[in-house]
Amino acid sequence: MNNKYFIGILILVGIIKILTAIYLPLGNDEIYYLLYARYPDYHYYDHPLLVGWFIKIFSFNLAMNSIFSYRIFALVLSSITPLIIYKIVLMLSNKFSAQIAVIISISSIYFSIIAGVFVMPDAPFHFFWALSIFFAVRSFLTSNGSSVCHKDYLLCCFFLGLTCLSKFHGVFLVFGIFLFIFLYRSSFLRSFSFYLGILLLMCFTIPILLWNFHHDWVQFNFYLNRVEGNSNFNFVGPIKELLGEFGYINPVVFAFIGYFAFFKYKKIDNVNSSIFLLLTSLPFILFVISLSTVKETLPHWSGTSYFSLIILSSIVAGESGSEVFKKAWINLSISLLIIVFVLGIYVVNHFPGTIGNKVKEQTYGSGDFTLDMFGWKESAQKIRDTIQQKGFSDLPIVSDNWFPAAHIDNFICRPANIPFYCIGNIPQIHQYNWINPKRGEWSKYDSVLTIVPSNYFREPNRYLSKFYSSIDLISTVEEFRNDKKTRNYFIYLLRK
Questions:
Q1: CB of 200 closer than 8 Å to CB of 158
Q2: Cβ distance 55 to 68 under 8 Å?
Q3: What confidence tens digit (pLDDT) does each residue in 280-316 have?
Q4: In which band, very low, low, confident or very high, does the pLDDT at 319 lie, cut at 50, 70 and 90?
Q5: Which end of the chain lies in a sparser environment, N or C, as judged by fewer CB atoms within 10 Å?
Q6: CA geometry: angle at 384 spanning 401 and 428, to 5°?
Q7: Cα 379 to Cα 491: distance, rounded to the nearest angstrom
Q8: Which residues of 422-437 are buried (b: 16+ CB within 10 A; e: fewer)?
Q9: Three-state DSSP state, 119
């Protein structure tokens, strides 16, 4: 592959990522994870500590206060990951396969945008997942016979620990790598280094276990609830999950993996390499698909597991077939990423009105995923002005769910120093259960306000009546995009 062509694609995708980081507003999850940096802890209700600390460090303790500065850590980490995948494939195959792997991976919507731009735990998760694979390959697949490089194995365990400190899903990579050791490097089980690596890996569980021990194991119950299914088998669940993964990975990349990793599969030079790559990808993918038969799942959960499948398919592609044919795959995958980028920026920022429900005022805009990002900053001042005109500017604001609570907190309350609390049970309010006490006692207020956006309408009389006896709608603020209505913000006065 021509070096100028290869470097040109890298620069193009880099520009796309930077423009996305600048022009795409923060979504529900991103706004919420900013709380991790504002209220640092050694563990959090939803995820381990790394995402919050990365935000805090890369934004210089939030001194850099902009969308781009919050996303810098994801941009930095994801700019190093292509080099890691290049080195991995170079160890297992050749330069052409390595170039294919890099381009195919950065063509993925999940790898380039979700884990490459957004303020999500997926950013450090994918980065440390890649480093774990890198050192595992150096340890188990580049030495002669069944020998193991002990130093690289220990580095692999170190980065596996950081992977698990990014997201719990890292345990599936741990499972895949250690299953490979048991099956194909069993002599290593007699080594002191093997157990030293396990001890090193276990050290990373200390903040997770300590936090849960001091909080009645609340997070383990949360995750058990996410995986415990119901008695009804859902045939549609796996189809929805696969379609979601198909879209998140990039349909062309998904087809590339299917074609080269499975349909055109051939044993690469070292058969153990193929087995290793399958063991570090398929377990979590199959788990999520199986879980979707009894539980609602999200397609990005298993996104990073496609990392090894991209490596496998790229090696097969690089070692066989027509170069013109392979470049067609590459050009198509990059073209689709560009189309998604252009459409995404346009629809979120400029689409007239809403792509969601327009039938009822109460649920106007519901189903419109773009409203998770659009409009909050622009509408915040209108909402504050309305509250002031009504004579309630001295009252705190409450919400009963972590989203849109984080948006209300960040855009409406923080700039005006309005006290804000998210109240309710822990599964509803998440990390706010521990943030509320740091802001004072919310129950001391006899009167408060709540703001309910119509795209996520929740009846206050149903969810907040256990705290307040009188709940009255006092005003409605309309929001517009390109001169067309997107949603309503309902402002309620709550009294004890």
A1: yes
A2: no
A3: 999 999 999 999 998 888 889 999 999 999 999 999 9
A4: confident
A5: C
A6: 5
A7: 13
A8: bbbebebbbbbbbbbe
A9: coil
Taking the C-alpha atoms of residue 67 and residue 70, their distance in angstroms, rounded to an integer, is 5
Q: What is the arrangement of strands in the sheet containing 484-495, beginning at the earlier edge strand?
A: 420-422, 397-399, 447-453, 484-495, 470-481
With 0-12 / 13-18 / 19 or more C-beta atoms within 10 angstroms meaning exposed / middle / buried, residue 486 is: buried
Instruction: Tell me if residue 19 falls in helix, strand or coil.
Output: helix
């990365």: which residue's tokens?
54
Q: Is the dihedral of CA 282, 206, 225, 455 positive or negative?
A: negative
Helix, strand, coil percentages (3-state) for the chain, rounded to 5, are 65, 5, 30
Q: Which residue has the higher pLDDT, 226 or 8?
A: 8
Tell me, what amino acid is at 481? R
Q: Using alpha carbons, select from 108, 116, 31 the residue that is nearest to residue 72.
A: 116
Mean pLDDT score across all residues of the chain: 93
Q: What is the dihedral of CA 414, 420, 424, 425, to 10 degrees?
A: 50
- Omega prior to 404 cis, within 30 of 0: yes
Say if residue 124 is preceded by a cis peptide, omega within 30 of 0: no
Domain boundary assignment for the chain: 3-345, 369-495
Q: What are phi and psi of 452, to 5 degrees?
A: -120, 115
> Quick one: DSSP state of residue 143?
S
Contact between 488 and 494 under an 8 Å Cβ cutoff? The reply is no
Determine the Cα–Cα distance for residues 255 and 257; give it in Å rounded to an integer: 5
Cβ atoms of 153 and 132 within 8 Å: the answer is: no
What element of type H or E holds 490?
A: strand 484-495
Report how far residue 154's alpha carbon sits from residue 158's, in angstroms, rounded to the nearest whole number: 6
Q: What does the block give as tokens for 139? A: 């340890």
Q: Is 447 left (phi over 0), alpha (psi -120 to 50) or beta?
A: beta
- Are β-strands 447-453 and 397-399 bridged in parallel, bridged antiparallel, or unpaired? parallel
**CA dist list (Å): 358 to 355, 383, 454:** 9, 21, 10
Asked if residues 147 and 96 have their Cβ atoms less than 8 Å apart, the reply is: no
Give the model confidence (pLDDT) of 345-398 as tens digits: 999 999 999 999 999 999 999 999 999 999 999 999 999 999 999 999 999 999
Distance between terminal CA atoms of the chain? 70
Lookup: tokens for 288: 């999520």
Alpha helices in 235-318 (DSSP H): 236-249, 251-257, 271-279, 282-291, 306-318
Mean pLDDT for the stretch of residues 110-115: 96
Query: Residue 373 half-sphere exposure, CB side, CA atoms within 13 Å?
Result: 22
What is the three-class DSSP state of 485?
Answer: strand
pLDDT at 265 over 80: no
Query: pLDDT by residue (tens digit) across 159-211?
Result: 999 999 999 999 999 999 999 999 999 999 999 999 999 999 999 999 999 99
